[in-house]
Design the sequence.
């Protein structure tokens, strides 16, 4: 490490309060982007809302994580790489994304609502019949999105639990490199077998439809189908699972706002947007590298420099969201960047929003006396991971 690098702030930055972004972000938003020290080098840190939107939607910044200088937090094995399209630039990104877009339109998502409600109801039945108090993380939050994305992809029920554990390991910042590689390879091999099976014998699931429409015509390679399925699996499980748990915790700590939702369930869609903004659980996993020299509001970012977009910093920008540190279920939070922004906006955002709304509405309706079974300060947060979350949330009713 050079003497100059040692003087830079270290990233990721710690939180002084588990309910707030790192304290440094507020001060950094008043300045041009700054360089920080990261594992393996340096990168620019973007904390303002307008800067975040610009970097995420400007072709001068590449999403290709193989580009020199790209900040990497998850070290994956070199083969089989099978790059996902969210780590590509146009025209390949646009071509592959278009194939997946039809599976996650608002119209198709609405058609999925009955069976998402059925899965939620089944999980709440099991929760009600089980021990009281219970851990909401293992009993509900982790299971719902893994069952939903598993069924959507065509994963056999029961296998989704293994894939969920592999996803958690891949995104961990604490697991040994060997465990991360084993989990990544295990997940990839499972989806490789699934894609091969669906190419031969299609069924009524997402992998089959992509295989029939695009692999069979030569527009999509088998490897790209596997990479696409893996991206949907990882993105469709871990983030939604922990957003559910954190949202429940927030509302239990804000009984007056929970009472508003119970009086007027029509507020749930707005509440979901606010909870997404408030928690910003992807933390800082939105990264880019400069493809050319860029001058950004006083910062001279050189070609090949890495750039990290601090999603919690952008979503707590007081110039856009006054009183950002406070949860307000009546806030218009639609400008948040929890799902990214621009061409790389998360494809599964409509599905995630629907899962969150159904999960919260159904949970608080079924258990009107739901409460924390431990003191709030004893809740253990999962900080050292790409996706922020809670390790365990004991609740009673």
Sequence:
């Amino acid at each position: 490490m050079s003497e100059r690098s040692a003087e830079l702030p270290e990233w990721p930055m710690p939180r002084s309060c588990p309910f707030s972004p790192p304290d440094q972000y507020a001060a950094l938003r008043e300045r041009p982007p700054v360089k920080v020290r990261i594992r393996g080098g340096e990168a620019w840190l973007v904390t303002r809302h307008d800067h975040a939107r610009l970097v995420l939607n400007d072709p001068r910044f590449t999403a290709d994580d193989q580009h020199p200088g790209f900040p990497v937090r998850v070290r994956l094995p070199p083969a089989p790489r099978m790059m996902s399209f969210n780590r590509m630039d146009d025209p390949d990104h646009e071509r592959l994304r278009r194939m997946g877009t039809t599976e996650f339109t608002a119209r198709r998502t609405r058609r999925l609502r009955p069976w998402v409600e059925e899965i939620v109801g089944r999980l709440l039945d099991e929760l009600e019949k089980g021990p009281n108090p219970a851990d909401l993380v293992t009993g509900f939050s982790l299971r719902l999105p893994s069952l939903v994305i598993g069924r959507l992809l065509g994963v056999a029920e029961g296998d989704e639990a293994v894939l969920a554990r592999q996803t958690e390991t891949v995104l961990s910042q604490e697991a040994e490199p060997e465990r991360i590689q084993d989990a990544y390879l295990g997940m990839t091999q499972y989806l490789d077998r699934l894609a091969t099976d669906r190419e031969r014998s299609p069924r009524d699931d997402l992998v089959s439809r992509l295989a029939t429409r695009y692999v069979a015509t030569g527009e999509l390679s088998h490897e790209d189908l596997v990479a696409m399925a893996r991206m949907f699996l990882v993105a469709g499980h871990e983030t939604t699972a922990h957003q559910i748990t954190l949202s429940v915790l927030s509302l239990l700590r804000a009984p007056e706002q929970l009472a508003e939702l119970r009086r007027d369930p029509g507020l749930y869609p707005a509440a979901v947007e606010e909870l997404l903004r408030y928690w910003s659980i992807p933390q800082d996993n939105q990264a880019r590298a400069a493809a050319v020299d860029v001058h950004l509001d006083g910062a001279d970012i050189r070609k090949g420099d890495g750039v990290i977009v601090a999603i919690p910093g952008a979503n707590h920008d007081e110039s856009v969201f006054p009183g950002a540190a406070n949860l307000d279920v009546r806030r218009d939070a639609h400008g948040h960047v929890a799902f990214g922004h621009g061409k790389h906006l998360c494809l599964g955002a409509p599905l995630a929003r629907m899962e969150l709304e159904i999960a919260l509405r159904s949970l608080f309706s079924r258990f009107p006396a739901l409460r924390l079974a431990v003191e709030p300060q004893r809740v253990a947060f999962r900080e050292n991971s790409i996706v922020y979350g809670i390790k365990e949330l004991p609740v009673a009713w």
Remarks:
- The radius of gyration is 21 Å.
